[in-house]
Amino acid sequence: METILRIDNIEKYYGNKSSLTKAIDNISFEVEKGEFVSIMGASGSGKTTLLNCISTLDKVTSGRIFVGGYDITGLKGNKLNKFRREELGFIFQDFNLVEFLNVQDNILLPISLVNGDINKEKYTYLLETLRISKLVGKYPNTLSGGEKQRVAIARALLMQPRLILADEPTGNLDSRNTEEVFCLLKRLSEEFEQTTIMITHDLKLADRCDRVLTMKD
Ligand code: ADP
Predict the structure, then answer these.
(1) Considering just the CA atoms, what is the radius of gyration of the chain in Å?
(2) First-to-last CA distance in the chain?
(3) pLDDT tens figures, 96-109
(4) Which of 65, 128, 164, 174 is most deeply buried (CB count within 10 A of its CB)?
(5) Torsion angle of alpha carbons 40, 29, 51, 67, nearest 10°?
(6) Distance 110 CA to ligand 1 centre (A)
(7) How far is the CA of 21 from the centre of ligand 1 (A)?
């Protein structure tokens, strides 16, 4: 087993002594390569803060985070940008596609940012499996929510990042699209041995993940 993510006694506090919010109060866990883990918990329990600390958008107050055995807690500047671009894939609740780029350019954007090579076979396979081959020339504002999220999945998976972080990826979708998007994300993650961490409020989806982590207060 290869450990992809190691969270080691992290704490994240906001504010100062007079008004301190303990958004994350000492948590530790590990995620192995290929695992599909869901994070659940009431609103305000620290799920987004945790994801933001892993994605390096936010800094922990104490503790360490290792991705692929590499301590990312102190990363700064170019090293931080390089890590985020090369090792992480993001899927958001509100899709976060670039409106002035067509579907193809959106999917290829992470690779072009690091001047990487495009795996053409994988690209074609993802388009077909996600049923978005016919959409490549379209712009995001002409797509449905389900289509946008399937494009975002292609964008996240094509790079083969070490870790995929999905923040309520089905939160803006109806039940039919929720089922389709989740099934595709799960299936493709398995096929490509991707490691995925997904925040969700949907107990039925969480139950179908390899493991559920629940954040308390
Ligand atoms: P969740 O995603 O589970 O709803 P969050 O991680 O968004 O929870 O928030 C956890 C706690 O940290 C909440 O009490 C929230 O108000 C607080 N919090 C989150 N971000 C900030 C911030 N930038 N400044 C101050 N408090 C924050």
Answers:
(1) 17
(2) 31
(3) 999 999 999 999 99
(4) 164
(5) -150
(6) 28
(7) 8
Nearest CA to 148 among 93, 206, 86?
93
Q: State how far the Cα of 62 lies from the Cα of 29, in Å rounded to an integer.
A: 15
Helix (H, G, I), strand (E, B), or coil: what is residue 189? helix
How many angstroms separate the CA atoms of 137 and 167, rounded? Answer: 27
Residues in the ligand 1 pocket, defined by CB under 6 Å: 14, 21, 23, 41, 43-49
**For residue 12, how far is its CA from the centre of ligand 1 (angstroms)?**
10
The residue contributing the CA closest to ligand 1 atom 5 is 46
Q: Are strands 3-16 and 62-67 parallel, antiparallel or unpaired?
A: antiparallel
Residue 91 — pLDDT band, cuts 50, 70, 90? Answer: very high
The answer to whether 215 and 45 have CB atoms below 8 angstroms apart is yes
Alpha-carbon gap, residue 68 to 82, rounded angstroms: 14
Cα 51 to ligand 1 centre (Å): 11
166's enclosing H/E stretch is strand 163-167
If you take atom 14 of ligand 1, which residue's CA is the nearest one?
Answer: 44
Instruction: For 141-189, write each residue's pLDDT tens digit.
Output: 999 999 999 999 999 999 999 999 999 999 999 999 999 999 999 999 9
Q: How many Å lie between the centroid of ligand 1 and the Cα of residue 18?
A: 17
**Measured between alpha carbons, how far is 89 from 20 in angstroms, rounded to an integer?**
32
- For residues 28, 51, 210, 89, the Cα torsion angle rounded to the nearest 10 degrees is -130
